[in-house]
């Protein structure tokens, strides 16, 4: 299931980026939902909020490592919820990694195509949406597991911990 989700997410991301590149000129923001959501073409050499724009190759390596880690996590997802979460994360990372590897200016240092503006705060793409939803779902799943697992409420203390010594008396 995670592979299907990731493939669909990365595919939709790449299709929407191609459409944005063909239809938007980047000169002006086109509102979709007033000031809340709009369209504007941008090419980002950095990460969120343009951070790391001088280290595009480092971001490519980090995205490649995240891709490998998420590949492993997706193949071992213990439930449908985790398969969906890792699939969304895997698809989002893949979408932006493809840009970093294949987009101009050169291999491994490509700029990510962004086109979704959120107010006047930041600009992103569908891969960023998948990453956000995947991370949010993973957080919900982790909280749910913690609430269901009574040992999470009372973690086991390491041997010799003062709490264990008090309980032995």
Highlighted features:
59% helix, 169 residues, 6 helices, alpha+beta
Give the overall average pLDDT: 86
Oligomer: single chain
Structural class: alpha+beta
Instruction: Kindly estimate the percentage of residues that lie in beta strands according to DSSP.
Output: 5-15%
Number of domains: 1
What are the low-pLDDT stretches, counting only 5+ consecutive residues below 50? none
SSE order: HEEHHEEHHH
Helix content: 55-70%
The main pleated sheet reads as: 4 strands, antiparallel
The value of Rg in angstroms is 20 Å
Number of helices: 6
How many distinct beta strands? 4
Shape: globular
The side-by-side strand order for the widest beta sheet comes to 1-2-3-4
Distance between the termini: 51 Å
GO molecular function: aspartic-type endopeptidase activity
GO cellular component, one term: membrane
InterPro entries: Peptidase_A8
Protein name: Signal peptidase II
